[in-house]
């Protein structure tokens, strides 16, 4: 299957449709899983009957797709049989303890999301995702994400993540990821 990569004035154009095609190419057959643009909050939906599993990302946002793919790449086989992998999610407005719990489970997927972003030549920003709650320590969280990324780069990424990183590299013509100096904190 061939894809076209668009470049506008020296910058890559990142389209969510490309991620859907790449994800399908990598995982539709082998994992019976599809990447789907949603209209609301992101969610993972396990297959019902003859359907396929769905990794649903928010509103066509490229970054949301990368983030949700990262969560899927970490989830084990049993978790992939449960809606949203069986995890509890506390929405924006978290207190300090809830924010700490949120960040604890977000370090690995955000490190993988960063690697995806690097492979695609897409700007990555760490997200603490708590605009209406306690003020998180963004620098400390960014450091934990950086450390996890370095650990993955040293010891290896989960198999599905490594496969998707390679697909992104081939599609966007990027080289092996270097430890990201461009890791940014999202407000």
UniProtKB/TrEMBL annotation:
<keyword id="KW-0648">Protein biosynthesis</keyword>
<protein>
    <submittedName>
        <fullName>Elongation factor P hydroxylase</fullName>
    </submittedName>
</protein>
<dbReference type="Pfam" id="PF04315">
    <property type="entry name" value="EpmC"/>
</dbReference>
<dbReference type="GO" id="GO:0003746">
    <property type="term" value="F:translation elongation factor activity"/>
</dbReference>
<dbReference type="InterPro" id="IPR007411">
    <property type="entry name" value="EpmC"/>
</dbReference>
<keyword id="KW-0251">Elongation factor</keyword>
């Amino acid at each position: 299957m061939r894809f076209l990569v668009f470049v506008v004035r020296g910058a890559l154009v990142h389209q969510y449709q490309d991620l859907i095609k790449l994800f399908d190419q990598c995982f539709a057959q082998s994992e019976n899983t599809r990447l789907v643009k949603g209209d609301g909050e992101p969610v993972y939906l396990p297959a019902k009957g003859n359907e396929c599993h769905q990794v649903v990302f928010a509103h066509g946002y490229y970054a949301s797709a990368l983030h949700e793919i990262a969560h899927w790449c970490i989830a084990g086989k049993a978790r992939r049989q449960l809606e949203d992998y069986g995890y509890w999610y506390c929405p924006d407005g978290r207190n300090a303890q809830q924010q700490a719990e949120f960040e604890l489970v977000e370090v690995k997927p955000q490190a993988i999301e960063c690697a995806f972003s690097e492979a695609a030549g897409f700007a990555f920003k760490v997200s603490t995702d708590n605009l209406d709650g306690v003020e998180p320590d963004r620098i400390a969280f960014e450091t934990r994400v950086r450390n996890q990324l370095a650990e993955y780069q040293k010891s290896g990424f989960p198999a599905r993540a490594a496969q998707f990183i390679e697909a992104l590299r081939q599609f966007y013509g990027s080289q092996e990821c270097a430890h990201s100096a461009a890791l940014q904190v999202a407000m």
